[in-house]
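Aim 2, interim progress. The first record below pairs a target sequence with its C-alpha cells.
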Amino acid sequence: MAIFAPLRGQQAAVVDELGLHFIDMKTLKETLLIASEGIVALAYSPADSYLIACEKFNQSSPDHQNLQILDASNGKTLAKFQWRKTPKDAIKSIKFTKDERFCVRLVPQMYSKQPNSIEVYQNGDFSKPKSVINAHFQTRGPRKNEPA
C-alpha cells in the first residue's frame, strides 16, 4: 500500500513486509523506515504534518494500541490508541481541520450501554484531550417495526 501526502505531495508513505517507509518525492529516496508489522491502513492529515496508521486488532494481545498518529517529518509516534474495529474505520475516526489546529477522535463504546465519546485535541498536543464529549451514535438502522 502506498499513499501520497495530499497537500504538497512531497512525501509518500509505503507499507510492505518490512514496515513503513517514508519516501521524499523530490529526491526519490527513502528517508526513514519504521519497522512495524501489520499496518493495513494509512492516511495523511490535510496539511501533510501527520500520518495515521492502524494495524488489525489482535485478540490475543487486547491491550495493544494498534492505532497511532505519527509526525510525518520524522516518524515519531505522537499518540497511540486501541481500536477494536476495522483498521479502515480507525483511519476515519480521526479528523483534522484544514490548518490542523484541531483534531477530533471518535472513541467507540467498549460496552453496549456505554456512550461513544469524541476527544478534541489542539495544536498537535495529543498527550491529553482538551475536551471530551459524550455522544450517542446509532449503531444500526431501525428495524421494520420500530419508529425511525
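The second target in this work package is listed in the same format:
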Amino acid sequence: MHKRCGIEQSRSATRLALAIAAGALCLGSVVSADLQLDESSAAIDSNENWKNGWGVPDGFSLAIDTQGYQYPTAIAFVPDPGDGPKDPLYFVTELRGTIKVITNDRTVKTFASGFLQTEFDKEFPHGESEFGMAGLCLAPKRGYVFVTFTYQDDKNVLRNNVMRFQSTPGVFSLKPESRMAFTDTFARDESGPSHQIGPCQVHDDMLYVSVGDGFVSPLNSQNIDSLLGKIIRMELDGTPAPDNPFYEDDDTTKARNYVWAYGMRNPFSLAIVDGHVVVTENGLERDRFLEVRQGQNYLWNGSDESIATNAAYVFLDSMAGTDGLFGHRVVFPG
C-alpha cells in the first residue's frame, strides 16, 4: 500500500465534520462524517452496502457528499467560501492528473487537467503504475492551489514536482488564471514507483512538502544534497527559504537549500498544528508518528529499528498508516 485516502478537517462546511477523498482502492467518492446528518444528505446513496467497510465511532454517521471520481487522492477545503451556489467549497485531486473543484451546491467541475501525462494513464494503479497526483493544499490569501505529483520526463524517468495554480484570492475560482511548475527544483532526483512526493501544507506564507525516499536506498534520506526522504520548505514562488537550516544561496536546483528535516522513508501525512509540523510515516513493519523539528535527522537507515528514532509514537505490526486528522487540540511538550 503506497497511495493513500486523503483526510482533512473541513473548516468551511459546518455539516462536514471530516471529509475523506477515497483513494485508488476506496470508494471514488467524498464521504462526510457528521454528528447529525440531515435526511437529504443521508439519502444521496440509497445503497448502504458501501458503509460495511468503514469503522465509525459512536455518535457519528456517514453519507456520500459527492461522487464519480477516478482514483481520488487528496482533498482541501476553502476556509471561507463565497455564499453563491457555484462558489468553490473544496478541491479534490485524482491520481492521473485531474483537479476537481466542488461548489456549494455540490456540483463537481474540472479545475485543471492535462498537465500530468504518463504511459500508465489507463491502467489500474498498482506496481509501477501507481504514481501520479499526490498532495493538495491552498494558500487562500493569494488564491494559490498547490498540487504535488510524480511524472515521467522525456526519457521516461520518474521525477517529483510541484505545480502552483493561480486562482481568485480568498474565494478561489472554477478555473485557474495561470500555472507555474517547480520542475527545476526536483529535476536532480529520480523518484520511484512508490515512496514519491506526498502531501503539502501552507503555513506562515511558506510551503512545506513531504518527499519519500524513492524506494531505492535509505542513503538518499541521509544525504542533504538530495530531496528524497525529506520534509522540504520553500517560499510560495518555489524559491528556497533563507532561514532553512542548510540554506546556502538562492539556487533553486540545490537540494540543501530546501531541506527542513531529513532521514525519512515514506512520510505519508503532513499537517501543521499550532505551528508544530506533524507527520505519520511508513516503515517496513512498523510505522511512526513524529513531531518534526527543523534541521532534525530522523535516521531512517533501512531497518525497522530506525523507525523508532525520535518518534512520538510507534505503530507495531502496522498495516501502513496513511493520513492524520487533527480535529482536536494537540498538546505538545515544551
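The radius of gyration is 19 Å. This observation will shape the mutagenesis plan for the next reporting period.
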